[in-house]
């Protein structure tokens, strides 16, 4: 029997009816058409499905959709400002921090959550925070460099906004 | 100042914005109107005759729209080694018997994945289990059960390579040693699982298939053979692909059965594998028994090499026959080998079949040859870099009847390594060691086992009146950056910007044949086709400009920075945009189109060009636990002219991650044909905290065969990683291994055995 | 011109040396070739196994037989 799910995704409010067993990633992808979040391991062990739920990064394959009831979700589609890429997205591009791109949404969302909590992480802190994310293409070092670059860009942006 | 505007400059990914915003669509993401979801029923037995299949109950389940078994398919057999029809051994669904745990016997299309999954349990299959064989050395025995009835002793393929007189050369050697290795398999484990969507149009009888594939053309051929259709009536489109690494070359049951189900229901059908299916029923690296014997002079000069390999092929051929051939080829690289003999045998066994994975035989072969070479160096009292330097291939080296190495920067690579190691790794801590391994790899193969009549790669360039360009190429970007490389080459050749070019990739209906992304062929082969297509346009534009300039025909014109100009007097020229307008308007409006193609001719039996290099690894061993920590990696490679340094670095680092997995932690243990660890929880990939810092040095050369002198980059570097690590471990704590996957318990055990041996010696 | 080449007893392959013919022969996976070996008292499995050891024993053995039995052309 379906139950009501009222939540906000990327700033938009939704009122849906879902089966209790439905995972958050399924609602995002299949109901809302937000296919940017991927899933691929069937065991909660790769973090490709990472999104931000009420400010915290979560594996959307391991959360029931109904657990997001009354909450706010941010997915990869909600990051850019219209056509202007978020500094994290631009840093990933400039540092060649993805190749096939399948794990990238999860990496970027986790980066956003990390930098919100720790604006100037060291390489070791980045590796610790991102250890759950599997990537078969990159070997991770360029992702870590992108994250450090993103941290600097965000700091600069903050300083510029402060100056205004 | 570099002579190029774009080639060799770090360039961001042309698909970048799509990939970082979640807009890039993968087959995994696709939905079509009225689409059904398919699932496969798979054999629980490694070897069994199919007695009967009853699908009646499954058909009754609401939401189920079709259930098929082998007899409902067109029944064509298919495979990649199409030149030899007996090696086209795959079927859409098993008809008479199943050959491995997971071999599909039925397929369902339903209105949801859940319903399809539920319906699987309603299909009744009666099997008669047959004796099964799981080990190649058992499979070749006379009394072994036959996996395929026409292949006695389960020998699927053989390969012999020989030059010089190896037996005489061994007699002349001062030092001879034999070593035997057991190289274990590895799963490519791409992040996107195998996924296909098929849509059959009843009206025209044409089929369109979208698939997570490394080769739309190979898939088109496989589907044509399986479905007994004309290949021109099958259109394959490759959306973005979430990784392949060699596991997505073959036509697999997702695509074929999605097609059959679509033909039956008249609706689009999507099949996506679960991660468990990905691990247990898709192609992985071939495991093999390898024996290698070398004869050297006492100064370390290699005189003779003999190699025998038996590979565990699994239940079908795939590209496993090519791995057999290539393993016996790579094991001679990168050294001058005056005499050589190789015999390789691939056996069928009742397991998921093994095929090609990044390195294509090199990863396994070089583990053996590079660790053995270090052992020889130790016995001869030689420095490991010195023994490699002594035997290193040089430009123009030829292995009689097999291959010729045109460009070769191996010696400068070794020199650079030696320099850098002196600067960076002169002080080692306790239980730390440095290990080296040299390597080489092909830039695409000259082989045509696929039996194509077409050029190996084609491309088309269309220039519009406003100077924008449409570039059509079937090359498969599976993450390695081929799209970006192709756009860069087209832009360089035409003298325009990346932003002027729109790429139309990987659609068999609208692009010229390309054999796909395997054997590191895209940059050289498709790059050459793109360059040729762009050059055809450039030549047309130059002729228009020349006419306008009115200059003597001996003066050359060039295209750069959006101008067409006299090479010797660049100020005399015209804007590219104006010349384009003139070229079209002044020629009766004839479309401005260039077509290019490339096939290697007279380039030996292997490849037109070889990347070369050497890798060094510094590692530390914890004697208490056997845990190995990879501290740092130095990689020095010659890939000719690097087209995109950003992409090349990314690729090299990714290949090292996979190489480290091969060396340390990725294995596929099986029991009676069942893979025991089909999830990322138990199949360990190297993660971010375990990745070392990597320094990459480029030793540029120029290969005449490659576009702008380019060769492959970064499949080569998969191979030296594990042997360099094994050599580092040996130098750190004195233990040798005859297999890969050096998990801590294996290293610990080796340390304890060494300790016990030494204690035993001391007592005596 | 004298008959210097050797024709495969089971297919149209022609080689100038018995060893080359032996290599061709052991590369064939069809029944016809395998059955011919049995008529000569040879076992495909044994030939393969001995060729998989260092040395050239499998080909040497088969080459000797083919040198005598293969039709010349």
Largest sheet of chain C: 2 strands, antiparallel
Number of strands of chain A: 5
**What does the average pLDDT of chain C come to?**
90
Shape of chain A: globular
Write down the CATH topology of the largest domain in chain A: DNA polymerase, domain 1
- The end-to-end span of chain C amounts to 10 Å
Task: Please state the CA-atom Rg of chain C, rounded to the nearest Å.
Answer: 12 Å
The CATH architecture of the largest domain in chain A would be Orthogonal Bundle
Helix content of chain A: 25-40%
Largest sheet of chain A: 5 strands, mixed
Largest sheet: spatial strand order of chain A:
2-1-5-3-4
* Structural class by sheet pairing and helices of chain A: alpha+beta
Written description of the protein model:
The complex is a heterotrimer of chains A (164), B (764) and C (73). Chain A is α+β, with helices and mostly antiparallel strands and 164 residues long. Helix content of chain A is 37%, strand content 15%. The mean pLDDT of chain A is 97. Chain B is an alpha+beta fold. Chain B has four domains: 16-23 and 456-598, Aldehyde oxidase/xanthine dehydrogenase, molybdopterin binding domain (Aldehyde Oxidoreductase, domain 4); 31-130 and 188-281, Aldehyde Oxidoreductase, domain 3, CATH 3.90.1170.50; 133-186 and 284-382, 2-Layer Sandwich (Aldehyde Oxidoreductase, domain 4), CATH 3.30.365; 405-450 and 606-764, 2-Layer Sandwich (Aldehyde Oxidoreductase, domain 4). Helix content of chain B is 29%, strand content 25%. Chain B has a seven-stranded mixed beta sheet with strand order 3-5-1-12-9-10-11, sandwiched between helices. In chain B, strands 7-16-15-14-8 form a five-stranded mixed beta sheet, sandwiched between helices. Chain B has a four-stranded mixed beta sheet with strand order 20-28-29-32, with helices on both faces. The longest helix of chain B is centred in the C-terminal third of the chain and has 28 residues, at 522-549. By secondary structure, chain C is mainly alpha-helical. Chain C has helices spanning 18-27, 31-39, 44-51, 57-69, and strands at residues 6-7, 14-15. A two-stranded antiparallel sheet of chain C has the order 1-2. The N and C termini of chain C lie close together (10 Å). The model of chain C has no long low-confidence stretch (mean pLDDT 90). Chains in contact: A-B, B-C. Chains A and B meet through α2, α3, α4 and α5 of A and α1 and α16 of B.
């Amino acid at each position: 029997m379906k139950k009501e799910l009222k939540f906000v995704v990327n700033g938009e409010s939704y009122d849906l009816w879902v089966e209790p067993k439905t995972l958050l990633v399924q609602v995002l992808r299949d109901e809302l058409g937000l296919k940017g979040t991927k899933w691929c391991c069937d065991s909660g062990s790769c973090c490709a499905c990472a999104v931000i739920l009420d400010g915290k990064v979560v594996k959307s394959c391991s959360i029931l959709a109904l657990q997001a009831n009354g909450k706010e979700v941010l997915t990869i589609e909600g990051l850019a400002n219209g056509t202007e890429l978020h500094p994290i997205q631009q840093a990933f591009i400039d540092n060649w921090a993805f190749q096939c791109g399948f794990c990238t949404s999860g990496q970027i969302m986790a980066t956003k959550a990390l930098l919100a909590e720790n604006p100037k992480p060291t390489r070791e802190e980045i590796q610790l925070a991102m250890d759950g994310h599997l990537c078969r293409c990159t070997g991770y070092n360029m992702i870590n460099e992108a994250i450090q670059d993103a941290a600097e860009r965000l700091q600069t942006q903050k300083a510029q906004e402060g100056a205004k | 100042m570099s002579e190029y505007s774009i080639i060799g400059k770090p360039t961001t990914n042309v698909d970048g914005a799509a990939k970082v915003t979640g807009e890039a669509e993968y087959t995994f993401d696709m939905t079509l109107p009225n689409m059904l979801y398919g699932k496969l029923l798979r054999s629980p037995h490694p070897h069994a005759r199919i007695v009967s299949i009853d699908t009646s109950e499954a058909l009754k389940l609401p939401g189920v729209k079709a259930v098929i078994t082998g007899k409902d398919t067109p029944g064509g057999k298919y495979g990649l080694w199409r030149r030899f029809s007996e090696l086209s051994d795959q079927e859409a669904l098993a008809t008479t018997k199943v050959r491995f745990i997971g071999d599909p016997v039925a397929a369902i299309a339903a209105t949801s994945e859940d319903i399809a999954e539920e319906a699987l349990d309603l299909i009744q299959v009666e099997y008669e289990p047959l004796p099964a064989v799981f080990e190649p050395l058992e499979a070749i025995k006379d009394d072994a059960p036959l996996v395929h009835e026409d292949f006695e002793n389960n020998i699927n393929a053989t390969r012999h390579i020989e030059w010089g007189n190896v037996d005489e050369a061994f007699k002349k050697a001062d030092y001879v040693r034999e070593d035997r290795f057991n190289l274990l398999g590895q799963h490519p484990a791409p992040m996107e699982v195998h996924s296909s969507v098929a849509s059959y149009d009843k009206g025209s009888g044409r089929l369109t298939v979208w698939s997570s594939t490394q080769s739309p053309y190979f898939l088109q051929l496989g589907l044509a053979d399986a479905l007994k259709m004309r290949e021109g009536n099958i259109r394959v489109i490759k959306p973005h692909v979430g990784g392949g690494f060699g596991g997505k070359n073959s036509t697999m049951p997702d695509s074929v059965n999605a097609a059959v189900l679509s033909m039956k229901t008249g609706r689009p059908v999507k099949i996506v594998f679960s991660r468990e299916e990905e691990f247990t029923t898709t192609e992985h690296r071939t495991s093999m028994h390898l024996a290698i014997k070398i004869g050297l002079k006492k100064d370390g000069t290699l005189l003779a090499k003999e190699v025998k390999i038996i590979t565990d092929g699994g239940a079908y051929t795939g590209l496993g026959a090519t791995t057999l051939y290539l393993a016996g080829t790579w094991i001679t690289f990168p050294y001058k080998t005056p005499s050589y003999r190789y015999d390789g045998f691939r056996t069928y066994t009742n397991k998921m079949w093994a095929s090609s994975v990044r390195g294509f035989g090199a990863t396994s072969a070089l583990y053996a040859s590079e660790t053995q070479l270090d052992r020889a160096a130790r016995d001869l009292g030689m420095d490991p870099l010195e023994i490699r330097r002594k035997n290193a291939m040089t430009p123009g080296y030829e292995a009689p009847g097999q291959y010729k190495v045109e460009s070769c920067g191996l010696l400068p690579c070794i020199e650079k390594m030696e320099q850098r190691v002196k600067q960076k790794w002169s002080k080692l801590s306790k239980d730390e060691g440095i290990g080296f391994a040299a390597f080489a790899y092909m830039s695409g193969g000259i082989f045509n086992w696929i039996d194509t009549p077409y050029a190996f790669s084609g491309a088309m360039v269309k220039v519009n009146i406003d100077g924008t360009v449409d570039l059509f190429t079937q090359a498969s970007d599976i993450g390695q950056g081929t799209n970006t490389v192709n756009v860069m080459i087209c832009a360089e050749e035409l003298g325009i910007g990346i932003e002027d070019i729109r790429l139309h990739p990987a659609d068999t209906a609208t692009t010229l044949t390309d054999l796909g992304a395997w054997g590191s062929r895209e940059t050289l082969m498709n790059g050459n086709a793109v360059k040729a297509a762009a050059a055809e346009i450039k030549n047309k534009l130059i002729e228009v400009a020349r006419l306008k300039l009115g200059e003597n025909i001996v003066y050359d014109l060039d295209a750069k920075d959006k101008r067409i100009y006299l090479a010797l007097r660049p100020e005399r020229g015209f804007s590219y945009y104006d010349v384009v307008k003139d070229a079209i308007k002044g020629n009766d409006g004839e479309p401005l189109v260039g077509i290019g193609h490339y096939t290697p001719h007279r380039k030996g039996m292997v490849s037109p060009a070889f990347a070369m290099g050497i890798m060094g690894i510094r590692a530390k061993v914890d004697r208490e636990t056997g845990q190995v920590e990879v501290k740092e990696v130095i990689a020095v490679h010659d890939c000719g002219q690097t087209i995109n340094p950003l992409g090349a670095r990314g690729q090299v680092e990714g290949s090292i991650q996979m190489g480290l997995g091969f060396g340390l932690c990725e294995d596929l243990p099986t029991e009676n044909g069942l893979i025991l660890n089909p999830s990322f929880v138990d199949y360990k990939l190297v993660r971010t905290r375990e990745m070392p810092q990597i320094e990459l040095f480029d030793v540029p050369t120029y290969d005449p065969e490659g576009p702008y002198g380019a060769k492959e980059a970064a499949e080569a570097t998969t191979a030296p990683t594990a042997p360099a690590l094994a050599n580092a471990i040996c130098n750190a704590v004195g233990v040798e291994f005859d297999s890969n996957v050096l998990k801590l318990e294996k290293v610990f055990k080796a340390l304890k055995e060494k300790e016990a041996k030494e204690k035993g010696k001391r007592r005596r | 011109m004298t008959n210097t080449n050797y024709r495969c007893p089971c297919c149209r392959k022609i080689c100038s040396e018995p060893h080359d013919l032996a290599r061709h022969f052991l590369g064939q996976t069809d029944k016809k070739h395998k059955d011919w070996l049995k008529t000569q008292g040879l076992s495909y499995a044994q030939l393969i196994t001995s060729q998989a050891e260092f040395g050239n024993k499998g080909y040497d053995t088969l080459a000797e037989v083919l040198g005598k039995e293969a039709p010349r052309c």
